[in-house]
Amino acid sequence: MAQQGGSSQAARPGTASTPEAEAVPDNQRVKEALDRVVEQAGQVVLGKSHQIRLALACLLAGGHLLIEDLPGVGKTTLAHVLAATLGLEFNRIQFTSDLLPADILGVSIYERDTGAFKFHPGPIFAQVILADEVNRATPKTQSALLEAMEEQQVTLEGETRALPTPFFVIATQNPTYQIGTFPLPESQLDRFLMRIRLGYPDPQSERALLGGSDRRAVLHTLKPCLNGRQLQAIQRRVSTVHVAEPLLDYLQALLEFSRRAPDFSAGLSPRAGLALLHCAQAWAAMAGREHVLPEDVQVVLPHVVGHRLRGADATEAGGEDLAARLAEVPIP
Questions:
Q1: Domain for residue 331, yes or no?
Q2: Which helix (H) or strand (E) holds 67?
Q3: What is the CATH number of the domain that holds 77?
Q4: Alpha helix locations (H) across 42-182?
Q5: What is the per-residue pLDDT across 250-264, written as a single tens digit (0 to 9) for each?
Q6: Do 193 and 252 belong together in one domain?
């Protein structure tokens, strides 16, 4: 089933701008705007500022996010708070074993009054999509979502319909050892730019959660820090962050290491290399810099490639283990 939320737009705080085409902001304004987003989101998702920044970097890089963790640690709340803070239209799709592709994409229904079929769009037609417990749906339904993510459009009955922009899918999945799950195959995992885990809160944040107000009530009080046009302007800025030749050498060295090291059954693809580059650019932009540092690559590395590599025994490599292995690659 899908839960639909409205969209809202807000001018950049401190200005009187209208929601017309936004000029590409400078680096300092980008950093200030994104810091506000992280600060406000942190009022609801307590003690997880790093994970919020990673999710935001994924959005700025133009990709989609997979959150894998136990139920009840805030996966759904993070998706809600990002949509509210960014002023984007939000839909939630609860994935179940009986969900059909038409329940996601939409369907044409014959109307007797007009004597024609009318298309009724599905919940995929929103700017932020929460695909909750995506691995509880059948592979056929999973594929319908992932094709829309890849193509940024939906083709039904011979007609192609574009999806809104910006378009950001946050998919959550429970650990695959839990009953009733259908693990995403490697080709579909690769469609997600990043994968993160939230984990349990630290003791201080958990105490504030237990003794404070309901986080869902706080969520409803949030005001957008940005609007869709401003977000797209920041995404354009991210794509212009400079990448020096030595940094490209470092990226290629990481890719080459993954392909020749005996620890892995297969190496990283060129698409994985581009994903790593774009996420590093986003992380640099969030720091207010005009260029990418090796440290930017190292921060996003486990979350970009951890779900793309498998060990020599064909088991999935964990993010921390992967980072430790790739740490052997020297920085230029």
A1: no
A2: strand 65-68
A3: 3.40.50.300
A4: 49-60, 75-86, 101-105, 139-151
A5: 999 999 998 888 877
A6: no
